[in-house]
TrEMBL record:
Organism encoding this protein: Aureibaculum marinum
Protein name per UniProt: TlpA family protein disulfide reductase
Lineage top rank: taxon: Bacteria
Residue span(s) of domain Redoxin: 318-431
Domain DUF4369 positions: 21-116
Pfam families: DUF4369, Redoxin
Alphabetical list of InterPro entries matching this protein: DUF4369, Redoxin, Thioredoxin-like_sf
CDD domains with a match to the protein in the record: TlpA_like_family
Stored SUPFAM superfamilies: Thioredoxin-like
């Protein structure tokens, strides 16, 4: 019996010892209330747990079965503030500034994170100095000054290369290694003469050290972030046509780098489609859909995602709004008004029941605007809707059967109610106010 109890105690002790913790302290502590822990899988976040933040402190006890990889600690969803850490079956403890989490962070435990963040700190200043010398070389007109700058540059370049090699050697076999390797930057051995040649060099070598098939990198946002930097910041122009041309070239290069890794291609293309849709850049959205997303193997395409994107670009600013028909007329046939407002609402939406009466009061005396109000309803809510629209006689009230599956809801990309679209006399979309107050602001600015 004694031996049995001893065996059970040994098992319990082993189990407890197998567990690890992530503990953190904010300095300053701020007024953050909770921390959410996610396991990163590419651009996706898999929820693990959440905990309270008390006086700027928090702690997670991790299950012994938890996979190694990159974990994200989110403490401000609205402002997207978070800390990413490397978990490799060890305790993690750190102190950080919640206002500047990436720059002001110190690890007291976790060899992986100490190594990686030490690498970032050790390379940041030398790289900045090297970039500054390159800029100084561009603006220098004296051959003597150029020689002096070139000498300083070459020495800095050698030192930075040595630091990179040292950290790569030290991190071999650790989870930090692929991040350290992929973070290395190409720096020419001597300063480059012309700015255009320098920019060309940066673009050419931007992905030199990134292994697009490394599982550790793929299970983080590293590759996605790197691609976003390349497309949105390195290939940019204030001229819209030039900017779109640069974006197309950059996307083409990125997709070529990804090759036949269709899972990564799908994730990257969907991130890009989402971002360009948010920017209402119809040209680039169509470019990605037509040239890449539609050519992925069928099992890697998400038809619902594509329909949603296509609906959103249909209603991009400047586009003609999709037509809407009702019993005896349609949107395109209406005339005689400076503006039209298409609003989607529902009698089963509590927010709509509060806002639509206020919206009606605001619009009822506006003789220059016609409102087309589409009630997204199920059959069971239709009688309620029919009763409510009696309060809105100046609206053109259209019954939207099947609610979210309604034809017009899909064409307009509706996922929430109320949703407003302001059109000009030609039915082109000129505003998409999020709330009634935004709509009121739009009309005040028209006065």
């Amino acid at each position: 019996m004694t031996n049995k109890f001893f065996f059970l105690f040994l098992l319990a002790t082993t189990f407890i010892n197998a567990q690890h913790t992530i503990t953190g302290k904010m300095q300053p502590k701020g007024d953050y209330e909770w921390m959410i822990l996610y396991h990163m899988q590419g651009a996706k976040q898999n929820y693990i747990a959440n905990t309270d933040i008390v006086e700027g402190k928090f702690s997670f006890t991790l299950a012994d079965s938890l996979d190694v990889g990159i974990y994200r600690l989110v403490y401000d969803l609205q402002n997207q503030l978070f800390v990413d850490v490397i978990y490799n079956n060890e305790d993690i403890s750190f102190l950080f500034n919640p206002r500047n989490p990436n720059q002001e962070i110190t690890f007291s435990s976790s060899e992986e994170n100490k190594l990686y963040y030490n690498y970032l700190n050790k390379t940041a200043i030398p790289q900045y100095q090297l970039d500054s010398l390159q800029v100084a070389y561009f603006s220098s007109t004296s051959s003597a000054d150029k020689d002096k700058i070139s000498s300083q540059y070459q020495q800095k370049q050698k030192n930075l290369t040595k630091i990179q090699q040292q950290f790569e050697a030290e991190s071999k076999g650790k989870l930090a290694y692929p991040f350290i390797k992929a973070s290395g930057r190409f720096n020419s051995e001597k300063p480059i003469e012309k700015p255009n040649d320098y920019l060309k060099s940066v673009k050419t070598h931007f992905f030199d050290y990134v292994n697009f098939n490394d599982k550790t990198l793929l299970n983080s946002t590293f590759i996605t972030d790197k691609i976003n930097d390349y497309i949105f910041f390195l290939n940019a122009s204030e001229d819209i046509e030039v900017d779109n041309g640069l974006k197309k070239e950059a996307i083409t290069k990125v997709i070529a780098k990804i090759g036949t890794n269709y899972s990564l291609a799908k994730d990257i293309e969907e991130v890009l489609l989402y971002n360009f849709t948010q920017q209402q850049n119809v040209t680039i959205v169509k470019f990605i859909l037509d040239n890449y997303y539609s050519k992925l193997p069928t099992n890697y395409q998400d038809s619902d995602f594509r329909k949603d994107i296509e609906a959103k670009i249909k209603t991009a600013m400047g586009n003609k709004a999709p037509n809407i028909s009702w019993t005896d007329n349609n949107l395109y046939n209406l005339s005689g008004f400076e503006n039209y407002i298409v609003v989607f609402w529902s009698s089963s939406c509590g927010h709509c029941l509060k806002e639509i009466p206020l919206f009606y009061d605001f619009m009822k005396d506006n003789t220059k605007t016609k409102v087309i109000a589409i009630g997204l309803e199920e059959e069971v809510s239709k009688p309620v809707w029919e009763k409510l629209i009696l309060n809105y006689p100046s609206f053109i009230n259209v019954y939207g059967a099947n609610k979210w599956k309604n034809k017009y809801a899909r064409e307009y990309g509706i996922h929430a109610t109320p949703t407003y679209f302001v059109l000009d006399a030609d039915k082109k979309i000129i505003a998409k106010p999020d709330v009634l107050e935004d709509l009121k602001t739009f009309y005040k600015q028209k006065e």
